[in-house]
Amino acid sequence: MNICALIATRKASNRIKNKSIKKFDGSNLTIIKINQALNVKKFKNIYFSSDITELNNYAQKKGLILIKRSKKHLGKSTISDFSAFLAKNVKENHICYLINTCPLLKVSTIEKAIKTYKKLDFSEFESLNTFELVKDFLWNEIEPINYKLGQQPMSQNLSGIFKFNPAISIISKKLMIKYNNVIGKKPYKIFIKKPESLDIDTIYDFKLSELYYKKRKII
């Protein structure tokens, strides 16, 4: 089974200006992720897609295969706006989508995910994805959703809610096109914990992740 890596990023960023190229411990989030993928020796090819020239040049220099996206697949587009397009531009039948906003993810975790994916019963699971187990007191608009108001347990005894964390997503090319997403309807869950699971969305996440990264060089 041949699995490729796919990294996609864009110039636009709503909460952190130029997040993909913003200085992060002397580098940036995208270069860190590219080098991390290169350290995983299980990928047939590594594909890269961006509208940022300096990142495309770096990726090409490192031997990655570039996928050019049109304007409609950039800007404020979400994964469901461009995942099928990206999948159609890779040769391999299985894709490991790596997001650049999780710099604390370990290479060993990626390798474990690939090894596990190759052994999956695909009649039971459609993808492999990283998740976090959330044990917080969660409410919808009107009531608690994971405990009873008059019977509040200790937080460690709460029924877990599974939060999809986009650090790693492995799925077949066929299903990525079908669902226009990197997660299937029946995902196999690999659980990751903080700090490894930190996904940068705000400047607070950025600073916290950089602090951890400086203390434990992943690459």
From TrEMBL:
Gene Ontology MF: a single term: N-acylneuraminate cytidylyltransferase activity
One Pfam assignment: CTP_transf_3
Top-level division of the source organism's lineage: Bacteria
Gene3D superfamilies the record matches: Spore Coat Polysaccharide Biosynthesis Protein SpsA, Chain A
Descriptive protein name: CMP-NeuNAc synthetase family protein
Annotated InterPro entries: CMP-NeuNAc_synthase, Cytidylyl_trans, Nucleotide-diphossugar_trans
